[in-house]
């Protein structure tokens, strides 16, 4: 009986389009027990994916209004739900496990949580990364997109930065998890960028630090130099983050590298790289130092790309000493345009998974 509320919350999270699959070991229940107390878990079960005020939540659920906003604000501080204060009014909504609760535990991660999330990754990843639409899409190094190929706005990393009005830089939760497990990455840790369309959204952040638009561009250049892949939400609009990811820590890229799921299934990618055999000098830099998904293999006297594994990030191109690699647009038959916005993503994903989450809309 003690874990009944956590099983209820687990079912709610698994009903959401993102999913929260059960395991034989019950590690997902232990994770929820570590993150929420029973009252918090019960309250989260009553929230929706759409923003509401405390007054609206109280009216809809029958909960007493007194003290409710304070409790919701405290849960926001703990990364258990998503809250934002606009014009003096607090708004709150339910978050899925990922992208959501998991990432927002960054300030609270310890060895125990790292061990549990690592154990859960296999079960969660097999469900999450094999369903469409994908959670993330690749943002290629913009300079590597051939001039004759017109990149759509949602394919350009600069469009996110230019449309942003506030920028918050955080440590990578995946890198922090691996560091706690004794698998520290030698690439930069502070690489996760949150972007808001309104100024002031990130004022007085719980964690992370505010940066300028110029610093955001500098960050992206540094990440490219360090061989990190730019990933963002798989929508045409409503994109509010850029993750800069490595093969050893990133839960998404590990879906390719460790779970064996094809790269184009895990990540929505509109480009792929191609090596001109006659120009390749077989130095191997592209394969050993740049590619984060094992998409480049040695063959005879040169290297070649495995198209279905390649996620079109462009990292290999920027480091090729003979300029033997180019970025190509995938055939239209292989391209899935991202959903228009987060709401459409939820609808499309929910339909694919066969879950009825209308109660939480």
Question: Topology of this structure?
Answer:
Layout: H1 4-15, H2 27-35, H3 38-44, H4 54-61, H5 68-77, E1 82-86, E2 89-93, H6 97-101, H7 111-128, E3 136-138, H8 157-163, E4 166-170, H9 173-180, E5 192-196, E6 209-211, H10 213-225, E7 229-233, E8 241-245, H11 251-257, H12 263-266, E9 271-275, H13 285-290, E10 296-299, E11 302-305, H14 315-318, E12 325-329, H15 342-353
Antiparallel strand pairs: 1-2, 3-7, 4-5, 4-6, 5-8, 7-8, 9-12, 10-11
Low-confidence stretches: none
What letter string, H or E per element, gives the SSE order?
A: HHHHHEEHHEHEHEEHEEHHEHEEHEH
What is the alpha-carbon Rg in Å?
21 Å
Straight-line distance between termini: 29 Å
Report the mean per-residue pLDDT as an integer.
94
Oligomer: single chain
> Largest sheet, order of strands side by side?
3-7-8-5-4-6
Number of H- or I-type helical stretches: 15
Instruction: Tell me the total number of β-strands.
Output: 12
Q: How much strand?
A: 5-15%
Biggest sheet descriptor: 6 strands, antiparallel
Shape: globular
Coarse structural class = alpha+beta
Helix content: 25-40%
Summarize the structure.
Among the domains are: 4-124, Arc Repressor Mutant, subunit A, CATH 1.10.10; 134-263, no CATH class.
């Amino acid at each position: 009986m003690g874990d009944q509320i956590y099983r209820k919350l687990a079912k709610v999270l698994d009903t959401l389009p993102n999913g929260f699959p059960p395991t034989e070991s019950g590690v997902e229940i232990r994770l929820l027990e570590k993150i929420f107390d029973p009252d918090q878990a019960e309250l989260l079960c009553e929230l929706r994916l759409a923003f509401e005020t405390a007054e609206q939540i109280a009216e809809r659920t029958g909960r007493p209004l007194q003290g409710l906003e304070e409790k919701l604000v405290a849960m926001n501080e703990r990364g258990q739900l998503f809250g934002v204060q606009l014009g003096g009014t607090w708004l709150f909504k339910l978050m899925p496990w990922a992208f959501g609760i998991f990432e927002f535990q960054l300030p609270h991660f310890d060895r125990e949580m790292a061990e549990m999330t690592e154990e859960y990754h296999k079960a969660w990843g097999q469900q999450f990364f094999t369903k469409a639409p994908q959670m993330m899409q690749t943002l290629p190094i913009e300079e590597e997109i051939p001039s004759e190929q017109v990149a759509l706005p949602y394919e350009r990393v600069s469009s996110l930065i230019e449309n942003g009005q506030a920028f918050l830089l955080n440590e990578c939760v995946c890198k922090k998890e691996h560091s706690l497990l004794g698998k520290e990455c030698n690439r930069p840790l502070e690489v996760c960028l949150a972007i808001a369309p309104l100024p002031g959204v990130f004022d007085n952040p719980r964690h992370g630090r505010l940066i300028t638009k110029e610093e955001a561009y500098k960050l992206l250049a540094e990440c490219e130099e360090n061989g990190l892949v730019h990933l963002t939400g798989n929508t045409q609009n409503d994109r509010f983050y850029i993750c800069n990811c490595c093969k050893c820590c990133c839960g998404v890229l590990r879906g390719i590298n460790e779970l064996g799921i094809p790269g184009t299934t895990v990540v929505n990618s509109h480009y792929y790289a191609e090596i001109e055999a006659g120009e390749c000098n077989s130095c191997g830099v592209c394969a050993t130092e740049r590619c984060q998904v094992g998409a480049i293999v040695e063959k005879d006297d040169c290297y070649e790309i495995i198209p279905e594994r390649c996620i079109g990030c462009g990292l290999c191109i920027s480091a090729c000493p003979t300029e033997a690699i180019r970025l190509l647009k995938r055939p239209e038959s292989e391209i899935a345009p991202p959903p228009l916005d987060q709401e459409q993503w939820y609808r499309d994903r929910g339909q694919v998974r066969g879950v009825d989450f209308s109660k939480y809309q």
